[in-house]
Amino acid sequence: MLRRVLTISIIAVSLTGSLFAAEHEVGQKEKKFTTESLKVKVGDVVSFPNYDSFFHNIYSLSSEKIFDLGSYPQGQTKKVKFDKAGKILVECAIHPGMKMTIEVQP
To answer: Which CDD domains does the record associate with it (predicted)?
Structure first.
């Protein structure tokens, strides 16, 4: 029995990257992010739901995490896993005023 529990724990850690990984949400509403800054831990996931009636294209060119989620409409959510510590500037390619930072802590 103990071996089975240990095996399940090891699988959970390898799938998430961390036993304590969490998921956070940063919405897009009225051409703004729902928060200007967010602190997460390495291994955490941030979801970016679009609550606006128009498209957004969320991206980052920060060396700690480069990503581009592409354009997506209201009602869709895209996710990013942060696997390296650092400060990431997140922007919208369609709406240049949309900016926020995510601080990824070890």
So the answer is: MauL (cd04221)
The domain tally of the chain equals 1
Question: How are the residues of the chain apportioned to helix, strand and coil, as percentages rounded to the nearest 5?
Answer: 15, 45, 40
Which amino acid would we find at residue 56?
H
CATH number of the domain enclosing 74: 2.60.40.420
**Residue 87: inside a domain, yes or no?**
yes
In a domain, 15, yes or no: no
Which tokens hold the place of 48? 């970016």
- The tokens describing 80, both together, are 């990013």
The angle at the Cα of 65, spanning 80 to 77, to the nearest 5 degrees, equals 20
Q: What is the mean pLDDT of residues 55-69?
A: 98
